[in-house]
Amino acid sequence: MALFNGVHYALSSSIQPGRHKELSALLDLHGAMSAPPPTHIIALAGSHIQGEYEGSLHVVSDMWYEGIDGQYVSERYYSPDPIMIFSGVVACATDLSQWDLEVLSAGITSLGGQWRTALTRDVTHLFALHKQSNKYQTAMYFAPYTGMSILTPHWFDDSVQLGCCVPEIPYLWPDPEVLAR
After folding, report:
1. pLDDT (mean) for 93-112
2. Which fold has domain 90-180?
3. If exposure means fewest CB atoms within 10 Å of the residue's CB, which of 26, 49, 86, 102 is most exposed?
4. Where's the BRCT domain (predicted)?
C-alpha cells in the first residue's frame, strides 16, 4: 500500500511554482492525489492559512513531506501557523541540566516541534554545550548523511525571543560563533 493512500491534497498559492511541481511529483509518487475533495492543504511554512479551514481537513506546511522517512508522519507536527516556530523540528539534547532539558522540551513541543530523549534517526536538531558526550560524537559522525543540525541551546533561546527560527550558522558545532563571543 502506498504511503499516502487516501490523501487528496491541494497546494496553496503561497508555494512557488518550482516547489509546487516538486511537491506534487513526490506526493503523487507515493499515492496521494491532487483531486477534490482535499483531505490536506499544503501551505508554505509561516502562512496564516490555518484559520481558513475547519473540520477534518489537515493544513500542513510544505515541510510535512520532508519529515517523512518511509513512514507516515502526523500532520500536527507540520503546522504552517507562524506561531508554531518549531514546526518540523525533532529535537534532542545532550549533557544539559534537568532544568534546561525541561525548558527545551516544553518549548519545542509547545511551539510545534517534537522532543526525543534518545538520539534517533528522525532527530533534526541536537542541542549540546560541549563536544564530550557520546550523543554529540554520534551526531557529528552521522550529520553529513542525515542533515542533522548540532547546535548550542542559544539557538532555541534566540528563536523564542524573536518569535521565529533564527539562522543556525552562528550556533552550529564544531565551532559555534556564539560561544566565541
Report:
1. 95
2. Rossmann fold (3.40.50)
3. 102
4. 81-173
